[in-house]
Design brief:
Alpha-D-Glucose-1,6-Bisphosphate, Chain A, domain 4, homodimer, 3 helices, globular, about 160 residues, 7-stranded antiparallel sheet, alpha+beta
Chain lengths: ~160, ~160
């Protein structure tokens, strides 16, 4: 029988994207192809599925595995969307049969001098010792670096 | 145009229910009629709707108004359910047209000497100045008092 426990923790990441507009940053969350590139794909990861229904009450589901490891799944529900300004979503992560966390993520987007500031706040519940906030924060920081690459790519393609 | 802002805050409520078992406390969350009595109904409140699909990925929706005031709605998504032990859900609240908050709620249930301990942790994002953590915590404390009355009622009916 699994020993049950919950650890709650919050972290905040601030990242400024030079030469990007709030509209371009928001697009990278709202457009399925763009989101897939920076949020789901990655060196060594096999994507098993990716669906996204970007609206309040809509669900985003992705499943992937790293170098033949167990399936990792993310199920996200969009609770609040303010175009070019804000997203609030809740997501749970599972690895194989284990639900490892449920988190509330708030993304705030605002214009700054010569670019766009993104503030990400994650309020998480880490379940049964399967995950922890340090690991999650590190993973999210990598994602927001991948977003910088995606924004550059979209600018080059324009 | 609405001035956008988000305030993040966490609170925790511990409440011991004497003479109740974890199964009885869990039942009051899992059973639609019981949940409606303590969670939705209340003196002076008109219930416009209440639906509940108690399973992981399922949704609970309630709409109500206080003495002819604006409609208040709660939309809850169940992310994690461990029978008799734990619930993790995310919920958003709206008043009229305004979404006032999105929160992650964790309910932990455990047997204690002669009763059951419930620990509720809420990690909230309060939107655009429409609500605040002190008010939310006070509201939740009232709900967990109403749960005590419901548990007594269910014992009397047994």
């Amino acid at each position: 029988m699994t020993e049950r426990s919950v650890t709650h923790a919050t972290f905040r990441i601030e990242r400024t994207y030079e030469a990007a507009t709030p509209e371009q940053v928001f697009f990278a969350f709202a457009d399925k192809a763009s989101k897939r590139r920076w949020f789901v794909e990655g060196e060594g990861w096999q994507i098993d599925s990716f669906e996204m229904d970007f609206r309040v009450g809509g669900i985003e589901r992705s499943s992937f595995r790293f170098q033949g490891g167990p399936q990792v799944s993310n199920e996200t529900v969009y609770h609040d969307i303010v175009e070019n300004q804000r997203l609030v979503c809740a997501y749970s992560m599972t690895v194989g049969e284990d639900r490892i966390s449920v988190s509330l993520g708030t993304i705030e987007i605002s214009a700054t001098e010569g670019g766009t500031k993104l503030v990400y706040t994650e309020q998480g519940a880490y379940l049964d010792g399967h995950d922890n906030v340090a690991q999650r924060e590190a993973g999210c920081r990598e994602l927001y670096e991948a977003l910088a690459v995606e924004l550059q790519r979209n600018r080059n393609a324009a």
